[in-house]
Amino acid sequence: MMRPDKVDDPLRLLLIERDRGSARLVQKFLASADWPWKVEHVTTMQEGLESLSANGVSIVLVGLPIPEMKPLDPVVQVCARVPHVPVLALVSPREESLGLDAVQQGAQDYLVRGRLTQEIFTRAVRYAIERRRLLGELERSVDSLQMSETNLKNVIENNADGIVVVNPDGRIVFVNPSAEALLGRSFKELLDSTFEHPLTTEKVTEIHLVRPDGQDRRTVEVQVVDTIWEGKRASLAALHDVTERKRVEQMKDEFVSTVSHELRTPLTSMKGVVALMLNRALGDINPEQEDFLKTMRQDIDRLAELINNILDLSKVDAGKMMLVRQRVHLPSLVEQAVRSSQAILGQRTIERRFEPVPDVFADAGRVLQVLVNLLSNAVKFTQDEGGMIAFELKASPAGVAITIADNGPGIPKEDQWRLFQKFEQVRESWTERPKGTGLGLAICREIVDLHQGTISVQSDLGKGTAFSFTLPVYDPATAFSQSLQDMKSVEGADLQGVSVVLVSLADVERRLGSLPSAVPTISAEDLPSAPAGTVRNRSAERLGSSSWNGTSAKLEEVMKEGEEMIRKRLSRNDRVLSLERSLIAILAVADVAGTETIAQRMQKVCEEWATKAVGKAGPAAIVLATGHFPQDGMEPEVLLSAVRARLNAAN
Amino acid sequence: MADVKHRVLVVDDEPNIAKIVKKQLEVSGYDVIVAVDGEMALTKVREEHPEVILLDVMLPKRNGYEVLGILKQDEQLKRIPVMMLTARAQQQDQQTSLEHGADAYLAKPFQLEELVEQVKALLERAGSTT
C-alpha cells in the first residue's frame, strides 16, 4: 500500500463516533496497517470540530447520526471546516441510504457498522485519501486554468486596440470592448453580423468608422492575421485607432502647406517681376541689365527648387508622395527636360543615344523632375567648354533604362554609396565646394523607388559619371489596376471611392473607315523594332481586341490626342488611360453626381475633338459610361466589366 | 487679333501678383481690371463685363469656388470663361475647380507666358462657340 506523503510522520485519523465498539474496531484495523497511524477518537461533534482546528488531520471518520443534529449536518460541517481533508461516513446497517446522502454532501465514501472488515476499511481509507488527493490536483489545475484564462481574458478585454474575430463567411464571432466602442455597437448586436471592411492579411489597411448615430468619426488601422477560432479557420482583425495621430498629421500637413504657400508667393512675385523686365514689358533693358536679371532668375529658381525639394522629401517621409502614373513617351520627356534646363546648359553638348523603346508607365511630372535633377547635376560637374552630357534610352529587363552620362571628373568608388543619402555632399576629391542642397539625388531615388525601378551610378575618376534608372513598360491592363490601386491608397485625400469614366471610340473608328475586319492581326511580336508606342498592342490583344490594321494606326494617333486632351481637363489626381478602343478616366471622385457632371463635360469635349479628328466623316458620337469603386466591384477587372456592360447597353 | 482689346478680370488678393499679371496681360494687348476679394470680383464682373476671368482660389470675403458657383449659376454670366489659379500643393483644388464648372485651371507658380497662352486659348474657344 502506497503512502501518499512522507513516510516518517504517522497519518492522523480523527474518529467522531459514539459507538465504542466500532471505535475499537477502527483502532484495531489501523494498528495492523502497514504504515503508522495516530488515531484520535472523540464522541461529540463539538470535540471533533475543536480537534480539527487544532490538528493537521489526514482523514476524518464521522459516525452518523449524531444526536440533536440533522442527520447529514456533521458531514457538512466537517467538509466546510476542512475542505481538503477526505471524510468517510460511518452509518448503521439500517440507515445505509444516509451513507449515500453523505457522499453527496462531500464525503468520499461510507462504511457500514457491523460490516467492517480489515480489508474493506483499509481500502476505503486508502481510496478516500487518494481520491481526495486527485480531487485536490484537479481543483488546482482547474484553478490555474481559470487563472490563465482570466489573464488572457483580461489582456483581450482591456486591450486598447479593438479585436474582432471573423469566420470565413465574413461573420463576426467575437469582439472585445474596444472594438464595440469603435464600431459603436455591442457584442450582442455585432455577433453574427457581417464585418463590412476588407480583410487583407497583406498589409495594414486604413478604414473610417462612423458610429451608427453619425457621431464621432474615427480613423482606424486594421491589421489582419489568420487564426483558429473554435477549431475553424478565422480572421483576427486588430483595430488600432489612429484618429488622433491623423489629426496631428493633418495639422502638420496644413502647416507645411501654409508655409510653402507663404514662401512661394513672394518668390512667384519676384520671378514675375524679373520675367516682366526680361520680356521688355517695363521698357527696354541693356545687355548687362539682362545678364544680371538672368542671374537673379537663376537664383530665384534655385530657391524655388530648394523649397520644392524640402517639401517633396517631407512628403516622401510621410508616405504621402503619390504618383500619377500614365503612359509616358520617354524621348519627348527627355526633350522637355533639356528644354527646361536650357538656361543652365551653356556651351555643353547634349547627345541623344535613343534606341527604340516602348512607352513607360510613370508619373511624367516626377520623372521629369528626376531627369532635370540628374541633368543639373551633370551640368554642375562638367566644364562649360568641352562639357558633354549624353542621354541614353534602351530596353532593359526591368523595362526601360534611362542613362545620363557626363564627362566630368568622376566620383571615387568609396564615395558613391553616399550619393543617394539625404544631405550628403561629396566634396574635396571631385569638387572643392558643395553645390546644391544634397537633396536632389535622395529625391530622385525616392521617385524611382516609387516606380518600382532602380537607380544606380557608374563612375570612373577622370572619365565621367553615369546615372541610370529604370522604369516599367506601359501596359494598359496593369496600368488600369495599378492606377486604381494607387488612388485607393491615397492618403489624406480622404478618398472614399473612385469613379471610372469609359469613353467608347467605336463610332470614331467607324468614321475613320476601319470597321472591324478579319484582316490578319499585326501584333507587337511581329514588330521586333516597333517604334515607341506600338508595343501596347500586345496587351490590347490579350484583352480581346482584334484587328490592328493600317487605319488603326490612325485611330491610335487619335486616341493619343484624346488621352492628352482629357488629361489636360482633369485634375492632377486623376488618370487617363487608353485601353482597346476606348479611353478611361479614373477620377478621384466618389459620388455619382460629381462623376456625372464631369462625364457630361467630358462627353462634350470628346465630341468636339472626335468630330475634328474624323474630319469629313461627319459629326462623331461619343458614348460613355461611368462606374464606381467600390460599389461596382472591388477588383479592377470586375469594375471594368461592369462599366463595359453599361457602355454596351448605351451603344 | 481684333482691334478692340479683350477685357480680362484678374482676381487675386496678393497685390503684387495681381500687379504683375496685370502688367504682363496689358503688354500682351489686353484691357485688364483687378479685384482683390470675392465680393469685389462679382461687382466688377457685373459692372465691367470682362470676357475672361482669372480667379484665385484663396480669397477674402468669398472664396474662389463661391464666386465661381455664383457665376456659373447665372444665365448671363455663365458664358464668361473662368480660369482658376490653384496652388500646386493643393491637388484637390483642381478637381474642385472643374466640378464647380471652371473652364480651365492654372497651377501656381505659373509662368507668365503660360498664363498669356491660356487666356488666348480661352478667348478663342469662347469665340468659336458663340
Question: Could you characterize what this model shows?
Answer:
- The complex is a heterodimer of chains A (651) and B (130).
- Chain A has 651 residues and is α+β, with helices and mostly antiparallel strands.
- In chain A, 44% of the residues lie in helices and 20% in strands.
- Chain A is built from 20 helices and 21 strands.
- In chain A, strands 2-1-3-4-5 form a 5-stranded parallel β-sheet, sandwiched between helices.
- In chain A, strand 19 and strand 20 (582-587) form a beta hairpin.
- In chain A, helix 9 packs across helix 14 (440-450), helix 10 crosses helix 12 and helix 18 (550-569) crosses helix 19.
- Chain A is elongated.
- Chain A starts with 10 loop residues before the first strand and ends with a helix.
- The model of chain A is unreliable at 427-434 and 514-550 (pLDDT under 50).
- Chain B has 130 residues and is α/β, with parallel strands linked by helices.
- Helices cover 47% and strands 20% of the residues of chain B.
- Chain B is built from 5 helices and 5 strands, in the order E-H-E-H-E-H-E-H-E-H.
- In chain B, helix 2 (38-48) runs parallel beside helix 3 (64-73).
- The two termini of chain B are 17 Å apart.
- The mean pLDDT of chain B is 83.
- Classes of the chains: A alpha+beta (651), B alpha/beta (130).
Give me some keywords for this one.
heterodimer, A: 651 residues, alpha+beta, 5-stranded parallel beta sheet, 5-stranded antiparallel beta sheet, 44% helix, elongated, B: 130 residues, alpha/beta, 5 strands, 47% helix, 20% strand
